[in-house]
Amino acid sequence: MNIVASDTAPRAAEPWWKFPLVWMVIAGPAIVVVAGFVTLWLAIRTPDPVVAEDYYRRGVEINKTLADKKLLPAQTGRNHAATPSDDVPLPKK
């Protein structure tokens, strides 16, 4: 029987960076870190808009101008289970 020496000799271990599965495991956290830095950059670059000092008064004024029930479907329809039957919003035509 003729045995080739390379068949019985143990192979030398390859370096870790030559295995594709290692790169798949590293890629997930690396992408998350990059996305975190992109989010931080966007948050610093675009500041939040300032809310008006009198936002509540402005909202009350808007509600007064929309006093007609047909213009307030969310307010009349949001609690439809507890709304009396005479106060049900009309369907759109």
Molecular structure report:
The chain is mainly α and 93 residues long. It has a domain at 17-74. It is built from four helices and no strands. It has helices spanning 5-8, 20-45, 55-65, 73-77. It is elongated and about 90 Å long. The mean pLDDT is 77.
Helix and strand layout, with pairings?
Elements: H1 5-8, H2 20-45, H3 55-65, H4 73-77
Measured between the Cα atoms of the first and last residue, the distance is: 93 Å
Number of contiguous helices: 4
- Give a quick account of the main beta sheet: strands, pairing sense, barrel closure: none
Quote the average pLDDT.
77
Helical amount among residues, as a percent range? 40-55%
> Would you identify the regions where 5 or more consecutive residues have pLDDT less than 50?
none
Query: What Rg do the Cα atoms give?
Result: 33 Å
Strand content: under 5%
Shape, per Cα inertia axes:
elongated
Structural class call reads: mainly alpha
The SSE order reads HHHH
Number of strands: 0
